[in-house]
Amino acid sequence: MMQQINSILKIPPRKPDSHKGDFGRVLVIAGSYGMTGAACLCSEAALRSGAGLVTLGIPESLHGIVATKLTCVMTHPLPETHLKTLSDMGRQDILDFSQRFDVVAIGPGLSQCVETKRLVLWLLQNIERPIVLDADGINALAEDTATLDKIKQHVILTPHPQEMARLLKVYTTKEIQSKRKEIAEKFINSRDKVTLVLKGNNTIVMNNEKYYVNTTGNPGMATAGSGDILTGMIAALLGQNFPPFEAAQLGVYLHGTAGDYAKQAVGEISMTATDILDNLPKAFLNHIQNK
Ligand SMILES: NC(=O)C1=CN([C@@H]2O[C@H](COP(=O)(O)OP(=O)(O)OC[C@H]3O[C@@H](n4cnc5c(N)ncnc54)[C@H](OP(=O)(O)O)[C@@H]3O)[C@@H](O)[C@H]2O)[C@@H](O)CC1
Ligand SMILES: Nc1ncnc2c1ncn2[C@@H]1O[C@H](COP(=O)(O)OP(=O)(O)O)[C@@H](O)[C@H]1O
What we know:
lyase, NAD, UDP-N-acetylmuramoyl-L-alanine:D-glutamate ligase, ADP-dependent NAD(P)H-hydrate dehydratase activity, 12 helices, 10-stranded mixed sheet, 10 strands
């Protein structure tokens, strides 16, 4: 019987002698021509969520663009296809590079280019670090879900309902929305290396033992790039040593809280993903232990 979790962990205050190595190194593999924004939002959210160090791996010709936009995030140019998406030629480079990190986030804005999907499937089977897989990373996994049986480390999947439909193939988005918990449970089944975050109003976080239904957030968050921020947040929390379920749960809760602060500031209609990003500090400030 699955246990419903209602309590949310607090974030411990930092010890005075902390250094950035204590808070996790996050590698973000994201972006393609036309979708550099997703890559930037995800990596900035990881930093704002406490990661000690964040590096964004991006197709090489887009490197200059993101390097100009990002100040605190480091950038790493990677081999690209003629469509300016990540090339499978970069697989070994990414694998070797990933050894220097604690967590890898893969997916925002990668595109659905066939070669990039092949790269993602290979990385999933070979990376020896916990992974947060989102957006086009999930679309790649949908090509071969059996890859989940070959992963070396824990994977947190963060599909929106349509991505969930692509993963499962047998349900429409509408059916998923009408039976969210039941379908999430079917997907998790006995997979012990997977945590699922089924996004949308009342996001569900589930592993093979327990689940949480989120109540923070609002429809203003149905805006481009909002999910890319969540991916970076969860990766950062994993890097700060929260176990996968708790990292996902806390990420979802604080993402919604930041969305609620953004609603107070700009309202639901005008809210953009950058408003959510701007309100992460407030959400984190109010969630520190003993506060
Ligand atoms: N600035 C940038 O660089 C940005 C880049 N981005 C990147 O773009 C890539 C494509 O991602 P994407 O999610 O936009 O497209 P896609 O997977 O086709 O799904 C969209 C469809 O899913 C559905 N749907 C979603 N939520 C639902 C819900 N709660 N409840 C019900 N249905 C729901 C809905 O379907 P509809 O109802 O319209 O049929 C919707 O139209 C990805 O890599 C991402 O990272 C974006 O993040 C934007 C900012
Ligand atoms: N009505 C809503 N209530 C609460 N949260 C929402 C609502 N609509 C969207 N969200 C949240 O916003 C995010 C949207 O993510 P996603 O669909 O991946 O968008 P994108 O691909 O544009 O980043 C998810 O975390 C989702 O839970």
